[in-house]
From TrEMBL:
One of its GO terms (biological process) is glucose metabolic process. Pfam families: Lactonase. The keyword Zinc-finger does not apply. InterPro entries: Cycloisomerase_2, Haem_d1_sf, Lactonase_7-beta_prop, WD40/YVTN_repeat-like_dom_sf. One of its GO terms (cellular component) is cytosol. The lineage of its organism: Bacteria, Pseudomonadati, Bacteroidota, Cytophagia, Cytophagales. Belongs to the cycloisomerase 2 family. The keyword Transferase does not apply. Keywords: Carbohydrate metabolism, Glucose metabolism. It comes from Cyclobacterium xiamenense. GO terms for molecular function: 6-phosphogluconolactonase activity. This is 6-phosphogluconolactonase.
């Protein structure tokens, strides 16, 4: 794991426990340590971040609005300084909904997708020539409810674009739906005729990941602590449910459990999903013929409430943001087993929620 270029980590946080907002860290791969280069706290609770495909801009979803009475959040665009990774504000706009909890970009870097948990809606934004963001181009309000006590109304949680950018998949925890929207790259909008895929009642789809090579996708389900497995039609992007696997370890007991994040290994051989309560990662091997999952075991995340985690783009490391214990814990990923191993190294970050990674040559 020799250092081949400068590595920058951007950490999103809740503005609690003296957190200073977005943390910009220079990461040393050889010592598995990090130095704080900058903190940015333009608004409260920059919990989720998204890196532009060019590596020149970073987008942040702040839960605080434009003014004190504003019920919506704020989307901020930052220019990344070449050579250092430091951030400078380009512009910000209203997120157009309450409590933005996820932000992502299409593969071309022309469209920003934002999910609002409390508002139960989604919005899209056009990326401007400056790298800034337009006002909201699309706004879609979801409707409905489901059977769980936490499902009295829609709770949008993530928008994940297809690998070719033609579609984006919206996970709505509150109404147990995965919704496929057509994406208009030029306009920065989503279409008016979405395709709805109903999920098992009470499961609560939260985050979604698409296999980099195989025609399969995986949905982590927060309320049932399960992973849903789907075949993806390469022609129209439609989803076909295949199976569902458990996330919890039968050897552990916790009164509270809530599945959180999901990612594949770089080569698509392994799938990881985090659980808050048991505070572990469930490790699965991906069948390269069927897309189905075989549980390999569980590993403790080295902290409490693993809200999100990052699989290193080089495939060597896995970093877990443990929100309640204020740390980012570093694991190595052995090539032969794919089961992350603790390094004993961690980075202290108050209320750490999300990790983004940038390599600077």
């Amino acid at each position: 794991m020799a250092q081949t270029s400068k590595e920058i980590l951007y950490i999103g946080t809740y503005s609690q426990n003296d957190s200073k907002g977005i943390y910009v860290l220079e990461f040393d791969r050889s010592s598995l340590s990090a130095t704080v280069l900058q903190t940015v706290h333009d608004k409260k609770n920059p919990t989720f971040l998204a890196l532009h495909p060019s590596g020149k801009f970073l987008y942040a979803a702040y839960r605080e609005g434009q003014h004190a009475e504003d019920p919506n959040g704020t989307i901020a665009a930052y220019a990344i300084e070449a050579g250092t990774g430091r951030l400078s504000l380009v512009n910000w706009v209203s997120s157009a909904g309450a409590s933005p909890c996820h932000i992502s970009l299409d593969p071309s870097g022309n469209v920003v997708f934002v999910s609002h948990y409390q508002g139960g809606n989604l919005a899209t934004f056009k990326v401007l020539d400056s790298g800034g963001v337009s006002e909201a181009v699309s706004f879609v309000q979801h409707k409905g409810s489901s059977i769980h006590p936490n499902q009295t109304k829609p709770h949008m949680h993530a928008m994940i674009p297809s690998l070719d950018g033609k579609w984006v998949y919206a996970s709505d925890l509150g109404i147990d739906q995965l919704v496929k929207y057509n994406v208009n790259i030029r306009k920065g909008s989503v279409g008016d005729n979405p395709k709805v895929f109903h999920v098992k009642a009470g499961s609560g789809p939260r985050h979604f990941v698409i296999h980099p090579v195989l025609p399969y996708a995986y949905s982590v389900e927060e309320l049932s602590n399960t992973v849903g497995i789907y075949a993806v039609d390469p022609k129209d992007g439609d989803l076909t449910f295949l199976s569902r696997v458990e996330m919890l370890s039968p050897a552990l007991h916790s009164d509270y459990n809530a599945a959180a994040d999901i990612h594949l290994s770089v080569d698509g051989t392994w799938l990881y999903a985090s659980n808050r309560g048991q505070d572990n990662l469930a490790i699965y091997r991906v069948d390269q013929n069927t897309g189905l999952l075989e549980l390999q075991g569980h590993i403790p995340t080295g902290g409490q409430h693993p809200r999100n985690f990052k699989v290193d783009e080089k495939g060597d490391l896995l970093l877990v943001a443990n929100m309640e214990s204020d740390n980012v814990v570093i694991f190595t990923i052995p090539e032969d087993t794919g089961i992350p191993e603790p390094t004993g190294k961690s980075i202290s970050i108050p209320r750490a929620v999300f990790i983004e990674q940038l390599f600077i040559d």
